[in-house]
């Protein structure tokens, strides 16, 4: 069997890496080999958001970079589709494997199906039920044409059953993001900000904000930042700033000497900080998974989540994005009264092995 693996944006790399490692391990020990190509769509083209992850996570250089970044979502989708179709026509395969819920996931799934190539979706079935999120549209469309569904939780599997997916095509395999996290825990390394800001375990909060609903409106972002500053006690505030957020932050005066605005970090440095933080304030989905496994309190500034397990089982709290909602949760965090949380079922670092075993049986 010949597979084409698709990676495009930062979260994809962390999901593709353990799959590649599992494929390599399979091919060393099994008679039936699983050949694969790795295609980088180029959706993220910033050095810190793409190339760094290939190096740190030990992913081989991609067979092709489609250079599909930039432009509006429609322009980006179209560019990836055109380039990926050309690639597949020259490099045919038996199955295209996509991960996550980014533009590349949607675009490459559509191209594959129109070329009569089977599609496997890793992280299938997750839903926020919020159609204002581009990612939710990507998930819905991808899952409507997918052939093999690999899910992270029982919630995701139920979402697929609810839309009529045949049970025999749904495989509850666990979370490949946690495969990557577990493997790299011994390799986490201090970023330069650790010494520059005299950080210590538990004396700082991590902040990540990038969603349009939080960062595209100046007053909204200002309100969130002021609430975090006002109710975080003496904790230092470390904020790796997404390119989308930096433009708006430049228009806001933050009256504190506890805030450290830094460039985006590589995977190993970022998770070093997360694992040593008092807590995390974010609007990301993937980070809520990592904090759940690491046992780090997490405050999510969103009204919906596609990862309910991080709230129901883990350390995450979904609080909406009204600045006034932040105070009671930070007070609870500072008082040491945060819920303990547990690790969801099958988040054990072996999801990729299960996926590869299933692929080999197809």
Explain this structure:
With 362 residues, the protein is of the alpha/beta class. It folds into 2 domains: 2-175 and 347-361, 3-Layer(aba) Sandwich (Rossmann fold); 186-334, Rossmann fold (3-Layer(aba) Sandwich). The chain is built from 16 helices and 13 strands. The chain has a 7-stranded parallel beta sheet, sandwiched between helices. Strand 11, helix 13 (286-294) and strand 12 (298-300) form a beta-alpha-beta unit. Helix 1 (10-29) crosses helix 7 (176-184). The longest helix has 20 residues, at 10-29. The protein is globular. It starts with a strand and ends with a helix. The model has no long low-confidence stretch (mean pLDDT 94).
CA-based gyration radius: 20 Å
Q: How many β-strand runs?
A: 13
Broad structural category: alpha/beta
Q: Estimate nothing, just give the exact number of structural domains.
A: 2
Order of helices and strands: EHEHEHEHEHEHEHHEHHEHEHEHEHEHH
Molecular shape: globular
Distance between the termini: 9 Å
Strand order of the largest sheet: 3-2-1-4-5-6-7
CATH class designation of the largest domain: Alpha Beta
Summarize this entry quickly.
With 362 residues, the protein is α/β, with parallel strands linked by helices.
């Amino acid at each position: 069997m010949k597979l084409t693996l698709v990676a495009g944006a930062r979260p994809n790399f962390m999901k593709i890496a353990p799959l590649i490692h599992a494929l390599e391990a399979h091919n060393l020990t099994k008679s039936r080999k699983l050949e694969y190509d790795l295609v980088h769509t180029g959706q993220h083209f910033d050095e810190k958001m793409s190339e760094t992850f290939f190096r740190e996570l030990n992913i081989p250089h991609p067979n092709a970079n489609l250079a599909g970044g930039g432009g509006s979502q429609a322009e980006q989708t179209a560019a990836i589709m055109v380039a990926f179709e050309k690639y597949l026509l020259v490099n045919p395969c038996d199955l295209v494997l996509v991960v996550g819920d980014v533009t590349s996931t949607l675009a490459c799934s559509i191209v594959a199906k129109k070329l009569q190539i089977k599609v496997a979706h890793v992280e299938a079935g997750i839903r926020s039920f919020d159609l204002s999120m581009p990612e939710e549209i990507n998930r819905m469309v991808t899952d409507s044409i997918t052939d093999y569904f690999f899910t992270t939780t029982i919630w995701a599997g139920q979402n697929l059953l609810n839309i009529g997916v045949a049970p025999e095509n749904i495989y509850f395999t666990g979370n490949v993001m946690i495969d990557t996290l577990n493997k790299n825990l011994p390799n986490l390394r201090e970023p330069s900000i650790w010494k520059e800001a005299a950080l210590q375990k538990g004396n700082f909060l991590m902040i990540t904000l990038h969603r349009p609903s939080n960062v595209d409106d100046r007053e909204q972002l200002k309100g969130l930042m002021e609430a975090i500053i006002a109710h975080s006690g003496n904790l230092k505030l470390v904020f790796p700033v997404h390119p989308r957020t930096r433009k708006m932050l430049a228009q806001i005066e933050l009256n504190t000497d506890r805030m450290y605005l830094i460039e985006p970090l590589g995977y190993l440095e970022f998770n070093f900080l997360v694992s040593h933080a008092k807590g995390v304030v974010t609007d990301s989905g993937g980070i809520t998974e990592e904090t759940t496994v690491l046992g780090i309190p997490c405050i999510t500034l969103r009204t919906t989540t596609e990862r309910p397990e991080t709230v129901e089982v883990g350390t995450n709290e979904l609080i909406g994005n009204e600045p006034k909602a932040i105070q009671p949760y930070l007070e609870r965090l500072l008082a040491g009264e945060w819920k303990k949380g547990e690790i969801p079922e099958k988040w054990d670092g072996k999801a990729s092995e299960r996926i590869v075993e299933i692929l080999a049986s197809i």
